[in-house]
């Protein structure tokens, strides 16, 4: 929900999805080509600033979306720095630090490129871009349905919490844990019922196995794509210079 809200409020919401995708691909390609940790860290900073300053993504939203993958990355890097010894114990592998720094920098740069795209591109624009790229319609329909089910799941959960709170279901830790368990057990049934209602509503409107959305117009798509290609080329050149 946070990602989609940021995408609709982004300054780049009116930019052609092809331009944003090209810039993100350029950033990911540059992250793959570059090798020095300093260059990778600088690339990640440039891509993050492009989203924060250029697209005006709220910093609080950006940090909140970034924290889960950063936690996974930190845990992965720590496991790379600790190796089992012949005596059965665990030892600090200082020799792995260059590889860990390079892996962490590359992951951060690719994460920044991906976040810059998803935090500025609403799902309907993304689906339209994928349809132009000849993505199978079944995959697009699954993406749209999963997207819709997230809102259904959230609505069902909030309604359940409200009903339980009105009955003092969260009065103390013991009641709170019990209420949460009961609600989690009922969520599958509620979501299944609401999914069936959505299916019936779609069939009543002539659903024939393909979901359609009103396409958005981007009058300056060519110009924006050209600027995005130039920016992506500069990132790739900077990364290629790092190898020389």
Outline of the structure:
Helix content is 75%, strand content 2%. It contains nine helices and two strands.
General description of the model:
With 244 residues, the protein is mainly α. The protein has nine helices and two strands; from the N terminus they run ααααββααααα. The two termini are 43 Å apart. The longest helix has 32 residues, at 173-204. It has a two-stranded antiparallel sheet with strand order 1-2. The mean pLDDT is 84. The chain has two domains: 2-121 and 220-243, no CATH class; 130-204, no CATH class.
Properties at a glance:
2 strands; two-stranded antiparallel ribbon; 9 helices; globular; 244 residues; 2 domains
Give Rg in angstroms: 23 Å
Please provide the ordered H/E string of secondary-structure elements. HHHHEEHHHHH
Low-confidence stretches: none
Count of separate structural domains: 2
What is the end-to-end distance?
43 Å
Strand content: under 5%
Report mean pLDDT, rounded to a whole number.
84
What is the helix tally?
9
The coarse overall form would be globular
Number of strands: 2
Specify the biggest β-sheet.
2 strands, antiparallel
Widest sheet: strand order? 1-2
Structural class: mainly alpha
What helical percentage do the residues reach?
over 70%
């Amino acid at each position: 929900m946070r990602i989609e809200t940021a995408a609709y409020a982004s300054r780049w919401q009116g930019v052609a999805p092809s331009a944003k995708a090209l810039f993100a691909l350029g950033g990911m390609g540059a992250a793959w080509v570059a090798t020095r940790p300093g260059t990778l860290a600088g690339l990640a900073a440039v891509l993050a600033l492009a989203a924060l300053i250029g697209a005006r993504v709220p910093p609080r939203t950006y940090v909140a979306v970034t924290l889960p993958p950063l936690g996974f990355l930190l845990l992965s890097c720590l496991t790379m720095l600790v190796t089992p010894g012949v005596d059965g114990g665990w030892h600090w592998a200082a020799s792995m630090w260059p590889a860990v720094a390079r892996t962490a920098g590359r992951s951060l740069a690719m994460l920044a490129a991906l976040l810059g795209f998803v935090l500025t591109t609403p799902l309907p624009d993304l689906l339209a871009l994928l349809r132009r790229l000849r993505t199978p319609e079944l995959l697009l329909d699954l993406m749209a349905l999963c997207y819709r089910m997230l809102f259904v799941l959230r609505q069902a959960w909030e309604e359940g919490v409200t009903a339980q709170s009105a009955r003092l279901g969260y009065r103390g830790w013991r009641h709170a844990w019990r209420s949460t368990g009961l609600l989690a057990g009922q969520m599958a049934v509620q979501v299944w019922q609401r999914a069936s209602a959505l299916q019936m509503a779609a069939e009543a409107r002539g659903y024939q196995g393909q979901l359609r959305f009103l396409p958005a117009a981007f009058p300056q798509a060519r110009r924006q794509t050209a600027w995005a290609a130039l920016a992506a080329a500069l990132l790739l050149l900077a990364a290629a210079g790092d190898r020389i």
